[in-house]
């Protein structure tokens, strides 16, 4: 089962009550206050974990509550803090406050986390309330209440490259051929209903490839599950646009290419500006090359011809995509470096260099030092 949206009720544990106790010792008839503080309540945390691949694990239980902190004890003993409850979700999960709608955090990086319901702080024990006028205070604080709310989690897949195209073009077959992913493949449209991710190895590195559900005309207006499908294209860097050479409905592949481009363009967040590699699939079928040539002429761009069955053209395709991703990542890194001033300007290094390279003749010796 693949689930990409869930709503959960979360509650942090209450803080433990502070204690109001007095020291009792032999020969000390009136021991002072010694009530310790209550422990802190546990928090509920949502964390991105690369091993989680969708939100299905969070559908069986809707309420997540952390435990309360333990109450304080006599002899200034603090109550134990309660443990946090950590919910693991795949990277790419957007965490929102359900009722206010605001984003609490977009968990992009593996390991990123957000506290969705903070546990209450433990109350102070009576030891803190002693004063000159009140040497035997009975006051203590109850613990703070833990936060509670409803949160909604939405997974928007993050991938380096995404496969787009009409249903039945061969997207899932291509993913299964290029990675170890095992998506469902069938000779009819709309086989894929949710994204599948795979890792394509290239040399020492690789990239994450997403097989996405097939798009149809009107997807950008929400036809079928258009929006549901298109939103998963939002966070892919490069598009691999797969064009079926012989659609079973007899439609024209060139027309179909433009139809998909139109849907990408008309989506809420225009997606047609993404770098795109265009491929005609099913290369081994007679006439596929003619379709490729016709499309290339029409769009005035390179169109590759590939076959997930024979493997033809796949090396070239993977090379192109890897190079595009590499270029984009480099550009992103440069951009990030430009925005962020270097923490330690290389000033110190420059000075050392200047000193070392300063011509010796310029150093004026102290008076009398030359003779
Ligand atoms: N001859 C040939 N058939 C292919 C090739 N790649 C895929 N197919 C066939 O095309 C059909 C559709 O393949 P899928 O991979 O399920 O297509 P898809 O684009 O993922 O389809 P949806 O998930 O419905 O959008 C299947 O019958 C595949 O066996 C290929 O390279 N050559
Ligand atoms: Mg598919």
Could you please describe the fold and organization of this structure?
By secondary structure, the chain is an alpha/beta fold. It has 2 domains: 1-23 and 30-133 and 140-155, Spo0b-associated Gtp-binding Protein, Chain: A (Distorted Sandwich); 159-334, P-loop containing nucleotide triphosphate hydrolases (Rossmann fold). The protein is 20% helix and 21% strand. The protein is built from 6 helices and 14 strands. The strands form 3 sheets. It has a 6-stranded mixed β-sheet with strand order 10-11-9-12-13-14, sandwiched between helices. It is elongated and about 105 Å long. Mean pLDDT is 86; it is low at 345-365. Bound molecules: guanosine-5'-triphosphate and magnesium ion. Magnesium ion (MG) binds at residues 171-172, 183, 191-192, 211.
Helices and strands, with pairings:
Elements: E1 5-11, E2 44-48, E3 63-65, E4 85-89, E5 93-97, E6 103-107, E7 113-117, E8 148-155, E9 159-164, H1 171-178, E10 196-202, E11 205-211, H2 226-230, E12 236-243, H3 253-266, E13 276-280, H4 288-299, E14 303-305, H5 314-339, H6 347-357
Parallel strand pairs: 1-3, 2-4, 9-11, 9-12, 12-13, 13-14
Antiparallel strand pairs: 1-8, 2-7, 5-6, 5-8, 10-11
This protein binds guanosine-5'-triphosphate and magnesium ion (MG).
